[in-house]
What we know:
Blueprint: H1 2-21, H2 30-65, H3 79-86, H4 97-110, H5 114-127, H6 129-139, H7 145-165, H8 176-186, H9 192-224, H10 227-232, H11 237-251, H12 258-263, H13 271-284, H14 286-292, H15 298-322
Amino acid sequence: MAVPLALGVAAIAALFAIDAFAPQLFSASLPTRAQDAVTLSLSVLIESLPFVVLGVVLSIVVQVWVPPGAIERWMPRRAWARRAVLSLLGMFIPVCECGNVPFARGLLMRGFTVSETLTFLVAAPIVNPIVIITTHAAFGFDDNILIARLIGGYLVANLIGWLYSRHPSPDALLTDRFRETCELVTTETGGKGRRSLAQFVVELRSVMPALVIGSALAGAVQILVPRDTLVAIGSDPALSIVAMIVLALVVSICSNVDAFFALSFAASFTPGSLVAFLVVGPIVDLKMLALLRTTFSTRVLVGMTVTVVLFAFALGTVVNLGA
């Protein structure tokens, strides 16, 4: 409880400080902005919750109901090929990034390596069927935004998987709490129904606090960052990419619908900046980082964030040059 309380106090203090020393940054009053923060936090939470539950259910199916070896025997033996296949697994799982976290936890408990699981986890919210359909509905094939998003998501996923496959101590990439959860799940006795129910409770208890904290952070940060400032630099090829990356980190919109949010910026922002937004958001926004922290160490999250942001900036620059 200490961390959520500290974050809440910090957000409230920041609101009062801005209102006292720089009131010109925001047109709305402090009570209005506070109400907006609550509304935004609740909207992120409500939007994410069904996918989290679906992800937990899929995770249980993988761990409890799928026979041992049923997935593994279809995987290539070479490590790079296994990661390449796992990065496409999201095409068959219609959940957004929130639901992919519990599913990825299930893969880890089943015996998949950290690098293999990260490869799936990074690619899945971008290459899943609903995201492909909604991104096409928003942009079609204009400025190659859809193609760049899919290729970019696939490449950065395999890049991250390769980077962490070289880590000398994979267990150090996981949190102590996740390892304890693994022990609880593996020692659970009884039939499949009992094990499924027990794991459902364990997974929700692990993921839900992080989801609530991430949603609250996303709502608070959105009212602390003036959007007018971001929009004002939208026409600059480099600064527009930076602005949309910052926006992607902050707004924490579900990847199943984020293309329509990005579409609202299409008239004033460059195509490359929109691609950067669509790549960064599903992987390392505030809500996703809070969820990932239930499983992976802080060093992993920092490394992932830096890698994804740099990759997205380079990808956005290439798209702008070709537009």
